[in-house]
Specification:
CATH class of the largest domain: Mainly Alpha
Number of helices: 17
Helix content: 55-70%
Strand order of the largest sheet: 3-2-1-4-5
Largest sheet: 5 strands, mixed
Number of strands: 7
CATH architecture of the largest domain: Orthogonal Bundle
CATH topology of the largest domain: Helix Hairpins
Distance between the termini: 44 Å
Radius of gyration: 28 Å
Order of helices and strands: EEEHEHEHHHHHHHHHHHEEHHHH
Number of domains: 3
Shape: globular
Length: 406
């Protein structure tokens, strides 16, 4: 039996098809608990869940989670690939929910052996993935809020922006809370400003005289807003930035705590220049791919660090891979770029690639591909990464004249 599931936000359509292409059953269900419970019970009448694969146009969501929990193999179908297949069922490419569920079941029946199946991921890996992804979202929000604050200062108080740009982030936020307008900072002197910064643990990169000079030499704003309104706008925006920074620190603690119990953390935590956040991102994004990969080459491909080759006759092109897990590639390449500053082996692979006229992003992907082979070996054998063992196996050889292959 083969199941086609056309999903939506309010209703879903399900078709059950046998191996001859005959539709055995078909129904529509509401996106409610009762609808899912009745559907899973109805599916069990057609056989054991493990023998009823389901084709659906997504890799995540409530429907996928419920089906995986019930024991059904999930075959995710990319919407673009499914749209390209519509011509086999008619030139008009007609579309209805019932028709789509039937087509998905038929597509699974004829081509299911070529399609990868979605494998359940370790719960700890899913938790870490959710935490690191939310942290990345909050980082983007913090950058946007900080840019809005800089634009606000540039329009209404350029002097404040000049000081803000030269102070540590914590000190800068406290400074703008205390001095949100030009009038509030009018009586500041170099000594007072330096003493104020020192009481708050300022690193002292800029002396008070330099800071006050930047404050005084900045052009005056021609703002038509009242002093009280400008102060309110600046304080509220500072509170927004501070609030987001607080949530990021909370997420950092949660990521560290989750890593303490994750089984993969011991395998990779000794890798060069991999901090807690980077380790969490690598495990959260690369971990699910590791768990479902059959070979190292499949892992490398799904992580997006190999190009795509297109060859036909005399034509042959090797292009950047766009269709991939972008979050996994970003987490991996960020770690790889940092690792070259703490590992001679990684530095040599990167430098050799640059010597072959590769651009920096390309060289980082070559290094990331080499690191994936190491991660695959650690995960396959259940052994922790050990730099000494890496050296003993002649993986690091900074004196070799021949370039190392990636």
């Amino acid at each position: 039996m083969f199941i086609g599931w056309d999903w939506a936000t309010e209703t879903h359509d399900v078709t059950v098809m046998d191996d001859t292409g005959k539709r055995i059953d078909r129904w529509e269900l509401a996106h409610t608990e009762e609808g899912f419970a009745r559907t899973l019970a109805r599916l069990r009448k057609h056989g054991a869940p493990g023998d009823l694969p389901v084709a659906i146009e997504t890799t995540r969501g409530l429907a996928v989670d419920r089906l995986l929990a019930a024991g059904h193999p999930i075959v995710p179908v990319h919407p673009n690939a499914f749209h390209a297949m519509r011509a086999r069922w008619g030139a008009s490419k007609a579309k209805t929910d019932a028709g789509d569920s039937m087509k998905l079941a038929d597509y699974l029946r004829t081509d299911g052996h070529l399609l990868p199946r979605l494998e359940p991921t370790e719960q700890a890996t899913l938790d870490l993935q959710a935490l690191t992804r939310q942290r990345a979202d909050h980082i983007e929000a913090r950058v946007a809020a900080a840019n809005q604050l800089a634009a606000l200062l540039d329009e209404h108080w350029p002097g404040g922006k000049a000081v803000f740009a030269n102070l540590d982030s914590d000190i800068a936020m406290a400074f703008l809370q205390r001095y949100p307008t030009p009038t509030s900072a009018a009586r500041l002197t170099a000594g007072r400003l330096e003493a104020w910064c020192k009481r708050r643990g300022y690193s002292g990169k800029k002396p008070g005289s330099a800071l006050i000079e930047r404050l005084r030499s900045a052009p005056a704003a021609a703002s038509r807003l009242g002093e009280a309104v400008v102060g309110q706008l600046v304080r509220v925006q500072v509170q927004l930035v501070e609030g987001i920074r607080t949530t990021i620190r909370t997420l950092d603690k949660a990521i560290t705590a989750t890593l303490g119990t994750h089984p993969y953390a011991l395998l990779f935590e000794t890798m060069p220049r991999i901090g807690k956040v980077s380790l969490g991102q690598v495990i959260g994004e690369i971990g699910p791919i590791l768990e479902r990969s059959r070979t190292c080459e499949q892992l490398i491909t799904e992580a997006g660090v190999v190009p795509v080759t297109r060859a036909s006759g005399k034509s042959r092109t090797v292009a950047f891979r766009f269709a991939t897990n972008r979050r996994a590639r970003l987490a991996l390449t960020t770690f790889a770029d940092n690792s070259r500053h703490g590992s001679d082996w990684a530095a040599k692979i990167y430098n050799d690639a640059r010597a072959r006229k590769k651009r920096h992003p390309h060289a980082v992907r070559i290094l990331a591909r080499a690191w994936l082979r190491v991660m695959w070996a650690c995960w396959r054998d259940g052994t922790c990464y050990a730099p000494a063992t890496h050296q003993a196996n002649s993986k690091i050889n900074t004196t070799a004249e021949a370039p190392l292959s990636a």
